[in-house]
């Protein structure tokens, strides 16, 4: 897979295993509109098969439209472990995945940024509300934080808090 286009602005994505990779800012659009509340954040696994959360969970309502985060080709629309999943390949080696989603697209369909891919279904494990959309992104074999590719998230530093007023 080739490098990102030279014209793209970039930010650093930090890999917990060490190193960093430049990726374009605001490369992807949000898959839900309006911009949703994040109910569970990305937690990169330390090893390829280790524990972690390989995407983000976004607050949704059952039946809400799921939108393509960028132009691409649908490479999967079916069941994984009994849950309906859609995966889309994009230029630059990115693949976005959305679940649980009732698909309105089929494998091989070309989609445009913002196109409806399907609708959110209730029943995502660990979702404390009526429905959550799990949104994942990979570049090659590496999972990356989808929020870092929306241009909405920067680097955060936590300060110690003494618990006082």
Automatic annotation (TrEMBL):
Signal peptide: none annotated. Its EC number is 3.4.24.-. Keywords: Hydrolase, Signal. Residues 52-146 form the M23ase beta-sheet core domain. It is an enzyme of class 3 (hydrolase). InterPro entries: Cell_wall_metabolism_enzyme (IPR050570), Dup_hybrid_motif (IPR011055), M23ase_b-sheet_dom (IPR016047). GO terms for molecular function: metalloendopeptidase activity. The keyword Thylakoid does not apply. This is M23 family metallopeptidase. It comes from Amycolatopsis mongoliensis. The lineage of its organism: Bacteria, Bacillati, Actinomycetota, Actinomycetes, Pseudonocardiales.
